[in-house]
Amino acid sequence: MEKQTIRALRHAQLYGHLINRTGRLYYPGGSHPVCSEQTAHEMVRAGLLVRRGGRYEITPVGLQVLELELTR
User: Fold this and answer.
1) Whole-number Å distance between alpha carbons of 35 and 63
2) Cβ-based neighbours of 38, under 8 Å, separated by 6 or more
3) Which residues 6+ apart lie within 8 Å of 49 measured at CB?
4) Cα–Cα distance between 35 and 70 in angstroms, integer?
5) Strands 35-36 and 55-58, how do they pair?
6) Kind and range of the H or E run holding 56
7) pLDDT tens digits for range 12-44
């Protein structure tokens, strides 16, 4: 899996959600983007994240992907 996707999923798990600002996703209180909005939309289509308003939250499928990535 792409490094940027795994990084975004880890941040979503750690902080509970990611925030959409200026076309990029940030963790709450963060000043460095985690990923682009396009990457987030791809992760939503894949079922890894769910969008609720301006927030993106990790799904159970996203958590499974992280678990599999850690066992590599």
Assistant:
1) 18
2) none
3) 8, 9, 12, 18, 40, 43, 56, 57, 58, 59, 62
4) 20
5) unpaired
6) strand 55-58
7) 999 999 999 999 999 999 999 999 999 999 999
Is the Cβ–Cβ distance between 55 and 62 less than 8 Å?
Answer: no
For 10, the token pair is 């880890």
For residue 27, the cross-strand partners are none
The one-letter amino acid code at 40 reads A
54 pLDDT above the threshold of 80? yes
* Residue tagged 């975004």 (tokens): 8
**How many alpha carbons fall within 13 Å on the CB side of residue 41?**
5
Q: Token digits for 40? A: 């987030």
